[in-house]
Amino acid sequence: MVIPVNSIESIGSKGKKLPLCPKCKAQLDDRVPRGFFVKTILFFLPLKRYICYRCQRKTYILQ
Q1: In a domain, 24, yes or no
Q2: What is the C-alpha separation between 3 and 11, in angstroms, rounded?
Q3: Each residue's pLDDT tens digit, 2-59
Q4: What is the full DSSP assignment across 18-54?
Q5: How many structural domains comprise the chain?
Q6: pTM of the prediction?
Q7: Is 4 within a domain?
């Protein structure tokens, strides 16, 4: 089975789909707590925050 490199999500080691970093295209396996603004004002949006350990960038992803 061939998985495209530029796909939005890739399959992790546990079989679940993991998002990719928008900058370096590495898998974002770890979630971090959301910021104060997102937690209090945008609480109704299903935003999740991930960190990329390759480029040290934190990204919000709408799921």
Answers
A1: yes
A2: 9
A3: 434 444 555 555 667 889 999 999 999 899 999 999 999 999 999 999 999 999 999 9
A4: EEB-TTT--B--EE-PPPHHHHHTSTTS-EEEEEETT
A5: 1
A6: 0.70
A7: no
Other Cβ atoms less than 10 A from the Cβ of 20: the count is 20
CB 12 within 8 A of CB 18: yes
Residue 3 located in a structural domain = no
Domain of 45? 9-62
Amino acid letter, 35: G
What does the block give as tokens for 37?
A: 């603004």
In a domain, 29, yes or no: yes
Element (H, E) at 40: helix 36-40
Report the alpha-carbon distance of residue 25 to residue 10 in Å, rounded.
10
Q: How far is Cα 63 from Cα 58, in angstroms, rounded to an integer?
A: 16
